[in-house]
Amino acid sequence: MTLRNAIIIMSALGMMSDTVLIGFYPQFFDMRYGHTDQVHTGMYVAAISIAVMCTLPVWVRVAKRFEPMSLIGFTQCIAGLLCLSAIWAETLTQYWMLTMLMFMFKSSYLLMFPYLMRIVSSDEHSRTIALLSVVVHISGILAAASGGYILQHLGASAALVLMASGDFCQMGITLWLNRTNRIIKVNESQTEKAETVQDTAVLLADAETAYAVVTSASDRPATKQTSSHKGFLHLTKEILMLSLIMFVFDFSAYLIRPFFSEYWIYATGHKDQTLAGLIFAIPGLAAVVALIVKHRLNEKATRRNENLSWNLLLSLVGLYLQSVPFDIAIVMGRCLYGWGLFQVAVKLEVSLFSISRKEDYAHHFSITNFFQNLGVLISSWCAGYIVSLISHQAVFLIAAAGIALTWLADKLTLALDQIKPSVAPPSSGIN
After folding, report:
1. Helix axes 25-33, 156-179, angle to 10 degrees
2. What is the rounded distance in angstroms from the CA atom of residue 346 to the CA atom of residue 291?
3. What are the structural domain ranges in the chain?
4. Alpha helices (H) along 297-360
5. CA triplet 51, 67, 120: central angle to 5 degrees?
6. What distances in angstroms separate CA 319 from CA 377, 401, 423, one per listed residue?
7. Can you list the residues of the chain whose pLDDT is less than 50?
8. pLDDT at 227
9. CA–CA dist 117, 97 (Å, integer)
10. C-alpha span between 305 and 291 (Å, rounded)
11. Superfamily of chain region 3-185+198-418
12. pLDDT tens, position by position, 161-203
C-alpha cells in the first residue's frame, strides 16, 4: 500500500467516524438522554464546528515541529479514548465535555489534505481532490446507513463504539507507515524560517502590502501567482475572498444536514431510520457518478462540467425540490444537490491550491477551513431556530438563497471559472 492510498483510506475512516451520527443527533439525544430540543441539536453541531475551527490552526503550528502523519496517529488515539469514555457519560453536560475534547483531537486528521497536496504534483491536484471528495462521500454513505441501522437496532452506545473504531484504525495505519518507513517527511526538507502565523485581524490591517491583487476576469493570468514576500505576508486578498465564498457556500450546503432525516420522516411518513440514512446519503452516490463521468470526459467537456455557475444552479434547484414534501421530489432534489455540491466543492479546493504556494498549503488550508467551519457553525445554529420557529421546508429555501449569494460573491470577486489550474513538475515519487 502506497502512502497516497494510505492517506485516502485514513480520510475515509476519519469521515466515517465523524459522520456516523451527523444526520441522527435529534434521535440520538432523545434515545440516550430524553432530550428533544431542536435548538440544542443545532447548538451541539455548531459547537463541533467551533472545536474544529479553533484547534486546526493549533495543529498546523504543532505540525511544523512534528511530522504531520506521526502527530495524527497520536491525536487520533486520544480521540478514540475520549469517544469510548463518552459511552459512560451519565449526563448531557458530561457528554458535551468529553465529545468536544474528542473533536478537538479529531480535527488534526485534516492535516492529511494539505500534506497530500504537498507530496503530489500540481497537475494531479484536481484528480486527487476529486478522488478524496468521492471517498469522503462514499464514507458518508456508509456512515449514514450504518448510523441509522445501529441506532435503530443496537442503540446509541454502539454508534459511539463505531466512531472510536475509526480513530483507532487511523492510529494503526500511521504506526504501520512509520514502521515501514513509508512516510515522506516534509519538515526536514525545509530550512528554518522565522515564520509565525499572525492573527487574521493583524494581517488584514496590513492588507495594502499583500502581494496579490485580484485582477479582472479578462486579464487574469493562467498560471499560479508566486510571491516574493517572505515571513508574515501569507494571507493574500485572494485567499480571503476565496474564504468568503467558501463561508457562504458551506453555510448554505450544510444548513439542511442536522434535521434532514427528521424532515424525511415528517414529510413522507416513512419511519425506517435505515431508509432515512440511505436517502441522506444520496448526495454521496451522486458524487461517485460525477467522478466516473469526470474521468470519461475530454478536457473541453471537463471544463464545461466543472463550471461553477452551472453547478451552483443545480444545487439551488436541488435544494428547492427537497423543500417539496413528496418522496420523489426529495429524491430528485438530493440527486441534483449532490451532483452540484460535489462539483462546487472540488472547484473551490482546486482553486485554493492554484492560488496558494506549496510551502503555504497547510497555513492557507487552515484559514479557508476556519471560514468553512464558521459557515457550518452558523448554519447549524440557525437550522435549529429555523426548524423550531418556522418549518423544515424553510431551511431548504434559505439554503437555496445562500447558494445564489455564493454565485454573486464569486462574480463580484474572484470569478473562479477564469482561473486555470497550474501545472508543475512532480515534487516526489509518490504514486
Report:
1. 120
2. 10
3. 3-185+198-418
4. 299-305, 308-322, 327-355
5. 95
6. 19, 10, 35
7. 189-234, 422-431
8. 40
9. 34
10. 11
11. MFS general substrate transporter like domains (1.20.1250.20)
12. 989 999 999 999 999 988 888 888 876 544 444 343 333 333 3
Tell me the CA distances in angstroms from 256 to 41, 161, 262, 281, one per residue in order: 13, 26, 11, 13
Contact status, residue 300 vs residue 292, Cβ threshold 8 Å: no
* pLDDT, tens digit (0-9, with 9 covering 90-100), for 104-126: 999 888 888 888 888 777 777 77
Neighbours of 326 (CB within 10 A): 11
Range list of H helices, 180-236: 200-205
Predicted pLDDT of residue 206? 40
| Cβ-based burial of 296 (10 A; exposed 0-12, middle 13-18, buried ≥19) | exposed
CA distance 332 to 319: 10
CA 169 to chain centre: 20
- What would the grid cell of residue 181 be? 518507513
Rounded CA separation 399/389 (Å):
16
Whole-model pTM? 0.66
Those residues whose C-beta lies under 8 Å from the C-beta of residue 268, and which sit 6 or more positions away, are 325, 326, 327, 330
State the CB neighbour count (10 A cutoff) for residue 188: 7
Residue that is written with C-alpha cell 513509508 in the block = 182
Contact by Cβ (8 Å): 356, 239 = yes
| Helix, strand, coil percentages, rounded to 5, for the chain | 75, 0, 25
In this structure, what C-alpha cell is assigned to residue 419? Answer: 482561473
Kindly report the length of the chain: 431
Residue type, 206: D
State the cell numbers at 384. 435549529
| Amino acid 302: pLDDT | 66
For residue 238, how many other CB atoms are within 10 A of its CB?
A: 24
Give the distance, in angstroms, between the CA of residue 390 and the centroid of all CA atoms in the same chain.
28
